Amino acid sequence: MKRRPIVSVIDDDVSVRESLPGLLNVLGFAVSVFSSAEEFLASGHMAQTECLLLDMMMPGMSGRDLQRDLKRRRQEIPIIFMTAQMDENLRSQVVKEGAVTCLFKPFNDEALLEALNTALRPE
Questions:
Q1: CA pair distance 107, 110, nearest whole angstrom
Q2: What pLDDT was estimated at residue 115?
Q3: Looking at the domain covering 6-120, what would its CATH class be?
Q4: Which residues 6+ apart lie within 8 Å of 25 measured at CB?
Q5: What is the structure's pLDDT at 28?
C-alpha cells in the first residue's frame, strides 16, 4: 500500500476542522487536525507533518506567527495558508515569506489539490 503524505490542518474554525479531513482523506492524504498553532507545536506532530494547511487569523498565535516560529526553528514544512480575507497583497506577502500559496475561503477541491501537489512536489 502506498504511503499517504501527512497534512496537518490548523484552524480555529470547527467547521473547517470537521470538513477538511474527509476531503483530504479522499484525495489520498493522512490528516492531523489542530485548533491552534500552540496545540500543533505542543503535539509532537511537527516532525511527521509534510505540509501545513494553516489558517491565517487565529486567536493567540496567528498563522503568520507560526510561519515565523517554524523558520526560527529551521523547520522546513511547506505551508498553504487559508484565509477569508480576500487580499491579493496579503497573498503575495506570505508567498514572498516562503508559503506555497494562500487559498481564499471558500476554496474548491481542485485549488486545494493543486496547492498540495505543488507543496509536496520533490525539489
A1: 8
A2: 97
A3: alpha beta
A4: 31
A5: 93
| Cβ-Cβ contacts under 8 Å for 116 (sequence gap 6 or more) | 5, 7, 27, 29, 51, 80
pLDDT at 101: 96
- Where the chain has pLDDT below 50, the residues are none
42's CB contacts (< 8 A; 6+ apart) are: none
pTM > 0.85: yes
Nearest to 52, CA basis, from 78, 33, 76, 30: 78
Q: How much is the pLDDT for 3?
A: 82
Residue 123 has what pLDDT? 63
Buried b vs exposed e over 44-61: b needs ≥16 C-beta within 10 Å?
A: eeeeebbbbbbbbebeeb
Three-state DSSP class for 90?
helix
Whether the Cβ atoms of residue 107 and residue 80 lie closer than 8 Å to each other? no
- Name the burial class of residue 108, with classes exposed (0-12), middle (13-18) and buried (19+) by CB atoms within 10 angstroms of its CB: exposed
**First-to-final CA distance of the chain:** 24
